[in-house]
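G.,

No rush on this.
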Amino acid sequence: MPLAMPAADVWILLAEWAEQTPDASALLHGERTISFADLYEQSLRAAQGLADLGVGPGDRVALWLPNIPAYPILYFACARLGAIAVAVNTRYRAVEVADIVGRSGAKLLACAPGFRRIDFLSIVAEVAPAALDRLAAIVVVGEEPATLPPAIERLRRVPFDRLLSRPRIGTNHAAAQAPCNIFTTSGTTSSPKFVLHRQGAIAAHAQQVARALAFDAPETLTLSILPLCGVFGFNQTLTTLAAGKPCVLVESYEIEEIARLIAQHRPSTLLGSDDMIARLLELVPGERPFPSVKWMGYAGFNAALENIAEVAETRGLILRGPYGMSEVQALYAIQPIDTPVAQRKKGGGIVSSPFAHVRVRDPETGSLLGTGQPGVLECAGPSVMVGYWGNEKATAEAFTADGYVRTGDLAQLEADGSFTFLSRMGDVLRLSGFLVNPLEIETHIQKLLAIAGCQTIAVPRPDGVRAVSFVMLKPGAALDEAEVIAHCRRGLANYKVPLRVFAIDDFPKTPSPNGLKIQRTKLREMAETLMGS
């Protein structure tokens, strides 16, 4: 069946498939199968339950949930009410939850106390009382623990199942202009910004990506491994549903469980990281360990796995580099599947929407650049955010006068109309007047047998800005700093050669919805301390 007609809002995405193919599977989780009709019915009942708790148009509902059916049910319920779903990472703890719940003014917080041995309610008990004052209730998915922290007893708690026992809601506040999603940016040095999207942008993007990726194919089934609290997990799941196809919700990131689910459900598409792919290929033997998977979109975080796409291809797994961010949504672009692997493995590609457009600007002169010239990427199209909720100044700074989002990413345009993501501008090193992607230095250093991982930052010195590298060593190895520097001199331009190389047990990291991110600011502070700056 062809994709549904363009949806004006998020609710219509669900309602049209519930009418056209009510018995088709929408969500698979454990032994449960939820049809489109079931998802529609439960979302209507949950919407009435939320309305009973005082949720209405514009109110915020914080979803602190793993990839379980309650997440999409509550999300569609929020869309029906014209409310805003606030994504909260399950890795977050008391300080982060307090900031998001308090600053967003959430009326409700939904959590799952029994999820993967995370004591959500004890974490909430540690949240400053002022941050919880606006909460009308906590929606509890699953069983509460037998003993509750005293600080929780004062808060109203409502079982999720009680919401589902309510009758269908009759009113409908879903609308194209209604705000519906808040994603948090992964701030490492300051409070995260709240990225606000409206229903029309979310719905249009889901349908346009579904068309671009041919998700209307009969065999389409995706595995939602990345968390729904991040745009990549969220957009993959909503795109699958927008195509009227089933999605397997994966709440565990354990590699053995992921491999088991792939074998059981035979998905056509996956999204993940280079590290996950490497572990899957190591775990599952054979020339074609995942024969059902047409392709896998992936993000490269580990410079030591720079050749993972070539390795995967020798075993029949096609990898494609996508591009996305909270401000423009995930899968904003993706590399064409017929592109040679050397290009296809890079982030970027062709924009998914026919109405989207990218350009690259020189960060110093402000002039627009042509093909093959690295500069700051700017994105436009129907998937862009409304702005940063509650932060007009940051919103104004994020947009150009003609409506493009300043991504803060280093990229370059290609002759075939695609673009290539090179690096975050904040990670780019300006050495001797040249923009240098640190990955180039890190990949070269990791060719040495003793080196397990590398991160490179720039540090101001009296003779100019210089590169400094931190390395993790393989078991039993020792750092020979002089040899690492000599190795760099043999293979890199002089201005790219690190001034110093330091060994470190692990890189400082901060959690984000799409995985742990290296705190490069902390590495820079460590380098300055070690070098007496």
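When you get to it, here's the other one too:
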Amino acid sequence: MQRNTNRNGLFNVVALLAATLLVYGLSRLGNSLVGPVVTVWLGLGFLVATVSGFQMRLEDREEVERLEFEEISQGTADSSLFSTKAADSFPARRSREQFERFFVPGFSLLMFLAQVGGAFALWRWLAKAGPYELTKGTVTMAGFAFVALVLFLLGKYQSGLVRRLTGQRLLRPASAYLLLGAYLAAACAGVLVAVEAGASLRVDLYAARVITLLLALIGAENLVAMVFEIYRPRVKGRSERLLYDSRLVGLLGQPEGLFTTAAHALDYQFGFKVSETWFYRFLEKTLVWLVMVQLLLVWLATCFLTIEPGEQGILERLGRPHAAHPILGPGVHWKLPWPVELVYRYRTEQVQSFEIGYITGKQDHHENTILWTEAHFEEEFHMLVANRDEGASSSTNGFSAEQTVPVSLLVVNIPVQFQITNIMMWATNCAEPSQLLEKTATREVVRYLVNADMLDIMTRGREAAGHALRQRIQDRANELRLGVRLVFVGVQGIHPPVKVASAYEAVIAAIQEKETKIQQAEGYRASTLPQARAEAVRLVNAAQVYREAKVVEAFAQADQFTNRLAAFRASPQVYGWRSYLGTLAQSSTGARKYVIATTNTQDVILLNLEDKLRPDLLDVPLPADSTK
């Protein structure tokens, strides 16, 4: 029996190695993503089968050594030479114990690192995977199916040996990986079938990511098992579960083991053999058929579908539009089951949109005030815009010192909104109509900007640019027969690149300051010239008034002289005294006067001829009775 066990272990190693190489070759042949991930799984299974096979040989040597020891001890009279203490030093047993004590934990640690590192590397590789196409789908599909069938048969045979025979626990890890490898190879074949039936290539990517996450989960389970192994109590003579034997791999490879575990749990919980009741046995026998019936019902449920309001669907039979009614409107419809007939839904009444010139992200700015010196979106593209100011600044000797660059860089944020008007043209004329429309719109935007003036499109020409771009994109979409109608093309968020925005703002500020100085000068001129004209008119009018006054005064003096001459001639003496007294009265008005009434006295009169600053303070009025 031990020879058969060793032969089975060696057969498991060879089968897993061959399956690993074959799956890797099929994945390279078919350019599949899920194939390399399954290859990593099978490679880990090959390592586990190799270690378990080597441990089988160690236990086989130990068993042969034990039998030889018993045979020699029975045929020898003095059995003291073969005491128990001497038996403990047998090399085969010591080799097996050393192997289980040191190598198995080290191998389990290496398996954990390989599982976690492989999952991390595969996830990064899948994240960087670019566009690809599956090739030779029929050949690779058949190859994966063949590998799945062979591994499934071998795994079932090995797991049957583990269940029926005792002492076959070392076959359990390899048999679990054989069954799980069969299911993973079948999953590869199923992915190829789905893609050939018309499904997206994302099915291949999603399947690869799911299997990668499952690999990381197995690594976490291995870590937990190693931690529990440190604190596990050791019972002499009791065989424990192998440390590298993953329970999760065994559960995935043999899901029917759940029933055995559940039966034992129920037996322990209720105190009697629940697993021996008729209901449990009936459920155990008919579970597969029940699951198949449910899957059949799910498959038949694909005959009915619902088209939501605002949507339309294209009904295809065997990859071609249905001859009678290819377009389905909103409502409930029925069709042949998948994959005979498929329905592709499109939002025909909803206005869809995409962006040109930028890529939105989670850290976008949504403030009302938008600054040129800050990025508004996760990524913004620089576009060439024409610069009509191609003149050169003049310098001495007629040479050009600096010439303006004929093009500039601008960041332009252009949202485009469209609506599907012809679903058949949209779905059948190209493979990716949305990407084609976006690339077409981007090309038309680039063509328009290289012929537009930078200052014009940043200021007054923005609305006209939006209308012109909408018409250009619509014409190009009509040429490509995309079946869409452009609803809106907006030119917004136009600004220079963030790196040069500060310098650009400085230039704009200088231009605005120049315009401010010019406007201030114009205002000064507009206010000074009318003031000067008004002053000139005032001076002229004042001169004319002065002239008229002098002329009138001269005429008045002339007329006064004539009248005085007539008065003088009439009475010269009276005219003389009258003129004298009038002049004296006029000149002495406001002066202080002293009247000396007596003549027979000699009075000394002191006259202060200084000007008085405040006569009202210095002149003291005489009392009222001083004249008496």
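Confidence is low (pLDDT under 50) at residues 390-401. DSSP finds 17 helices and 15 strands in the chain.

Enjoy the weekend,
O.
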